Amino acid sequence: MSEPLLVALLGPTASGKTALSLVLAERFRGEILSCDSVAVYRDFEIGTAKPSAAHRRRVPHHLLDLLPPNEVMTAGDYARRAREVVEDLKRRQKLPLVVGGTGFYLRALLEGLFTGPQRSEELRERLRAIGAGKGSAYLHRVLARIDRAASQRIHPHDLPKIVRALEVCLLARQPMSKLWQAGREPLHGFRILRIGLDPDRELLYQRINQRALQMFAEGLVAETERLMQKYPNSPVLNSLGYKQAGQLLRGELAMEAALSAAAQGHRNYAKRQMTWFRREPGVHWLEGFGDDPLIESQAIRLVAAHLPEEG
Fold first, then answer.
1. pLDDT tens for residues 111-143?
2. H or E segment at 18?
3. For the CA atoms of 154, 157, 161, 165, what is the dihedral angle to 10 degrees?
């Protein structure tokens, strides 16, 4: 008996992943696993473009609203929870549809992560303070002395990754690159079908601009104000949309500038997403939006062709 299928539906923000995932889930007795690093947090609604209540009634959704925004969900945490869900779906003979734009979460689920030491917020804060005082380039030079291979994979201005790499090296008492070489534990027991959405760039940017306008019109600023009062130190407030709404509330940006910055931030994010997803192995790319009937029919044929034969 062949292994069950798992479908990963990937693509940039505003490319129609949600619409297509609903069609596929209803057609093939599937359930949807969100793969979004902001949608895992409760109370963050408008700026995350979470599936609506109507969508959730149509198809069961998983991995939404898992934590309060003052806690931390790492890629490893996500992968552990997601693997529990897909094993449950396997037992119930449901098709897992992993849907979202957070490439690192998807890679953690499907390919696994290296086994590193537990986080140390105290050490991170010390390293961040050094970075704030002497600059990320200084910490990057320190990392190069400790672990040259790791430093070559991290940009000198990417302070969060530099801090994490130094944290792992110091806590593990060995180069992080050695831990990478120790290998990961990929997801077993499934055949993986990756379907990617690759819409026209200009049309995508038009959608992104419209989505930014819609979020502000639906009350993003008021939601952000409530969240700032309830979770003043949450790093999730720095995510796209919420960051610009916060700048508006603090008087750092006018409304028009906040809208423009939010739209530009989402367009830049879409570019980074596609750069990441282009490196994913074996993606079946569909050139269009997920809510296009032509793309829907192509995706349906793809999934049907990869399903195990009954009998």
1. 887 666 777 888 888 999 998 899 889 999 999
2. helix 17-27
3. 70
Average pLDDT, integer, range 164-186? 79
Q: For residues 1 and 90, give the distance between their C-alpha atoms in angstroms, rounded to a whole number.
A: 14
Domains for the chain: give ranges and CATH numbers.
Answer: 5-113+185-218+273-306 (3.40.50.300), 121-181 (1.10.20.140)
Closest C-alpha to 109, from 37, 31, 52, 159:
37
Amino acid present at 105 = Y
Both tokens of residue 190?
């499934």
311 has pLDDT over 50: no
Report the C-alpha gap between 108 and 103 in whole angstroms.
9
Cα dist from 157 to 136, 137, 162, 172, 180, whole Å: 6, 6, 8, 24, 22
Backbone angles phi, psi at 99, to 5 degrees: -130, 125
pTM: 0.81
8 A C-beta contact, residue 284 and residue 193:
yes
Digit-coded pLDDT (tens) for 295-308 = 999 999 999 999 97
CA distances from 206 to 194, 263, 290 (A): 26, 10, 15
- Other C-beta atoms closer than 10 Å to the C-beta of 47 total 25
